[in-house]
Automatic annotation (TrEMBL):
It comes from Bifidobacterium colobi. Residues 58-104 form the SWIM-type domain. It comes from the Bacteria. Residues 110-132, 348-367 are annotated as: Disordered. This is SWIM-type domain-containing protein. Keywords: Metal-binding, Zinc, Zinc-finger. The keyword Ion transport does not apply. Residues 114-124 have a biased composition (Basic and acidic residues). InterPro entries: Znf_SWIM (IPR007527).
Length: 695
């Protein structure tokens, strides 16, 4: 297990994602000139003194991996940071943050235009020289630079020079080439292996079971396929070798549907076989004459169209089809590549909807039987079929894109993009290629146009997040691409707009951090004062409130359970954080009317201007019958209503609410409330025991 990478100096703000107020104070310290002279007391080890809030001064030491900001392939990273202040609640204090601001200004002057001039900013005079931290863009560019699917700097998605390297290992020593097994003999070998498998079973009926309870393995079947495939991979009789490889694919698919052994080894065999066939086709394209190459490719495409493979494992089916990309790089065989890929496009894209509908209807008819269980199984089968069809369509588009790229056919690629403007995969590939080339404005326009065409931005983002082109790097789908482009363009306004979208549409706790990210962006690079940020925050809170109303109107209140955290379609963690950080008491009161059981920070915020409302929320969570007349004005519970159930769990619930009450209003008020509850039930010793902490 590798250790996580150290944070980069250019984006050190990520160290304070969970403590935005600490970063805010760090910024104030830096801007007000509290950071003393920085000295490099050892190679890459920096020391300074920072004036505290009183007359104290604290020593801060920060070690970096290097100090060459021009080395873009090796960004400056923070190896360690330490401060002599007594603050221990979080790993990094405001003094460390202040020194990091100063270090970044000193070592990376182009990374920020913020000036320490007693808080006076002239953003208009500096906007042309702003260089925003490339937090998202850097991760995407690192991924693209590391991808093997590159050819002379051109970004590809399925073809890779690595395929050629593997292919050469098959024929590295031509003296070891064995005579190719004839296709007729191959068929006999596969039939014999099946016969031998079933011949070992008692009475040729059920698979034998070994001592561990597993069905008889299929080791001999696998060894037969591997032997035939290896013989083919080392052959220069390309046409007949590909016939044998087609038979291998068909045999494995047949085994998967006819034997009852553990199928995991067979699936692994199929995956490895397909990838090695894909590599072998590099040799076919490079060394076979055009006529032989065409026949060989036809055999592999026939293997890809095996019914069991296409419907059961569409990804491997399309990887075999992608063998045609090997032929796109040579003038003599490029025609075969176009023929295969354009046929797939006609089959899977132009007629895809009708074919899929017909197939789905057929599968639904075949799967239909009486009973809810059978209907549920039929629906699952239809869902799987739709997923398989989507995989085939997606990879057909990727293969076509790579074909035109490898062939330097800009007209074909543009025609593909223009004919499929609603394809999320193609548009992402287009945007990613533009980002790789540094054309951020064009990539931004591509993303924006696609979102404008979409009926639902959030669904479009979700689809983009799971497209597989940039796995794990597009958490917000198209908006993440736009975020990367805004960083590349150093566009503070655009980036702030994207962060606002994340905050307003937030329904996941991980996105709550964008409140502090937006604040730091506008303070550090937008030149906003604290007072100006306060107005921006209030406007943003109103947008969040309107979005909550839309959610209530259009989205059902549905909950799911992921781990131990409860999620609701009406909750907005970023809005909650904004309310708490900015102490928006009115907004907190309105927001809490839409959710159940508000967390303590929200209750404390409500209590700033609406203490009675905060008390009502807490006391209404008490079990019915708890409240007495003295506190009735804060609670909907009737003082003369149902008696409190005499259960320990009920008393524990009262104690829990009293602890919440104490966290908001202090121990004195809580003691009064606890005495009132106990006096109402003077003979309940267990109740007094549970509330002893507050009495």
């Amino acid at each position: 297990m590798s250790a996580p990478e150290k944070p980069m100096l250019a984006t050190f703000e990520t160290m304070f994602e969970n403590t935005p107020l600490i970063l805010e104070r760090a910024s104030d310290y830096w801007e007000s000139g509290r950071v003393g002279d920085i000295q490099e007391i050892a190679p890459h080890l920096f020391h300074t003194q920072i004036s505290g809030s009183s007359d104290d001064a604290y020593d801060v030491d920060i070690r970096l991996n290097h100090t060459d900001a021009k080395d873009t392939s090796n960004p400056i990273r923070i190896q360690s940071a330490a401060c002599t202040c007594p603050y221990e609640r979080t790993p990094y204090c405001k003094h460390i943050g202040a020194m990091l601001y100063e270090l970044r200004q000193r070592l990376m002057p182009s990374s920020t235009t913020q000036r320490r001039d007693n808080g006076n900013h002239d953003s208009s005079s500096e906007s042309s020289s702003i260089t925003l931290p490339h937090t998202v863009l850097h991760r995407i560019q690192e991924e693209l630079a590391a991808r093997p699917e590159q050819l002379d700097g051109t970004l590809l998605f399925l073809w890779s020079p690595h395929l050629q390297t593997v292919a050469r290992t098959f024929t590295s020593d031509t003296d070891d080439e064995q005579p190719l097994i004839s296709p007729v003999e191959v068929q006999h070998l596969f039939l014999d292996s099946i016969d031998q498998y079933y011949g070992r079973l008692p009475h040729h009926q059920e698979p034998a079971v070994n001592d561990s309870g597993n069905a008889a393995d299929c080791r001999e079947l696998i060894e037969t396929v591997q032997a035939v495939a290896m013989n083919a991979f080392q052959s220069t009789d390309y046409e007949h070798a590909c016939i044998n490889l087609r038979l291998c694919v068909h045999a494995v698919c047949t085994y998967l549907h006819t034997i009852e052994a553990d199928l995991a080894p067979l699936f692994a065999l199929l995956d490895g076989l397909v990838m090695r066939i894909r590599c072998y086709m590099e040799n076919v394209a490079a060394f076979a004459d055009p006529a032989t190459a065409g026949k060989a490719l036809t055999c592999i495409v026939e293997a890809a169209h095996d019914v069991d493979l296409r419907h059961g494992d569409p990804l491997n089916s399309m990887l075999l089809v992608s063998s045609a990309l090997s032929f796109a790089r040579y003038d003599g065989t490029r025609l075969w590549a176009y023929d295969v890929v354009e046929h797939e496009m006609s089959r899977n894209l132009e007629e895809g909807d009708e074919t899929s509908s017909a197939d789905s209807a057929s599968r639904q008819t075949d799967a239909h039987t009486d009973g809810d269980i059978a209907n549920a199984a039929a629906n699952d089968a239809l869902d799987d079929a739709e997923l398989h069809d989507e995989i085939i369509r997606t990879f057909t588009q990727i293969i076509a894109y790579d074909l035109y790229t490898l062939s330097h056919d800009d007209d074909g690629r543009n025609r593909l993009l223009n004919d499929n403007p609603d394809s999320s995969t193609l548009m992402i590939m287009r945007a990613v290629s533009l980002i790789q080339d540094g054309h951020f404005q064009a990539a931004l326009m591509t993303a924006q146009r696609f979102l404008d065409m979409s009926s639902n931005e959030q669904e479009a983002d979700l689809e983009a997040n799971h497209n597989g082109v940039l796995h794990g790097l597009l958490p917000h789908g198209w908006h993440t691409l736009m975020e990367a482009c805004a960083e590349g363009l150093n566009d503070v306004t655009m980036l702030a707009s994207i962060y606002r979208y994340y905050i307003v549409s937030c329904n996941d706790q991980s996105d709550a951090r964008y409140v502090s990210v937006l604040r730091n962006l506008l303070r550090m690079y937008g030149g906003l004062s604290l007072e100006e940020w306060g107005q921006v925050a209030r406007n943003l809170a109103r947008d969040c409130a309107r979005n909550i109303l839309d959610r209530i109107k259009y989205q059902p209140e549905m909950t799911t359970f992921g781990g131990t955290q409860r999620h609701s379609s009406w909750r907005n963690p970023a809005y909650e954080k904004l309310i708490i950080d900015e102490r928006l008491s009115d907004a907190a009161l309105t927001y809490c009317s839409t959710i159940t059981y508000p967390p303590l920070p929200l209750l404390r915020t409500i209590a700033i201007d609406h203490p009675d409302s905060a008390k009502t929320i807490i006391l209404n969570a008490m079990p019915r019958g708890t409240m007495g007349p003295a506190v009735f004005k804060y609670s909907a519970a009737s003082p003369s209503g149902d008696a409190l159930p005499a259960r320990r769990s009920t008393y524990q619930q009262i104690a829990k609410q009293l602890r919440r009450y104490s966290s908001v209003f202090g121990p004195e008020e809580t003691r009064t409330l606890a005495h009132d509850i106990v006096s109402r039930y003077p003979n309940r010793t267990a109740l007094r025991e549970e509330l002893a902490f507050a009495l």
